[in-house]
């Protein structure tokens, strides 16, 4: 009579171990409220116009930073995102700047790293224009007065001019854990 109980216990234990293992391997990622996922970052176009310094401070109040651009793939995804979330924004501050660098090198304020991928607008960089980098869209006027924005590209601007900000933060990654108690089980999202 003891054998059936032992076998039943072993089977239930094996099943629960499999469920626990599967739940522990499940992971997901999400963005903070208000941010949109673009590639492996979360982006938010800020409300209102700010100069570059105010924009940097604004993003930091959201536990974020001004946008940096790492490569062509990321740049293309950002340009795909902008018509939907910043449809009428011509100029968006990025974290790129040459503040304090006499060699005219640009750095991403958000990472502290030198900017090696710089998708310049035609005729840029114009060092005399300032020290901060903005994503600026070309635009055309359609019949009927409709403004059509083109691709955003980097331009050099005076840091004290007004523009909209685009903030970035990292995805929050979660691991799903299965919590068991005598009467039920629950799934919990644990930040990784």
Automatic annotation (TrEMBL):
Keywords: Signal
SMART domains from the UniProt entry: CLECT
Protein name: GL16715
Pfam families in alphabetical order: Lectin_C (PF00059)
CDD domains for this protein: CLECT
Residues of the signal peptide: 1-22
Domain of life: Eukaryota
Cross-referenced InterPro entries: C-type_lectin-like (IPR001304), C-type_lectin-like/link_sf (IPR016186), C-type_lectin/snaclec_domain (IPR050111), CTDL_fold (IPR016187)
Matching SUPFAM superfamilies: C-type lectin-like (SSF56436)
Ranges of residues in domain C-type lectin: 38-168
Gene3D superfamilies, per the entry: Mannose-Binding Protein A, subunit A
Keyword Lyase tagged: no
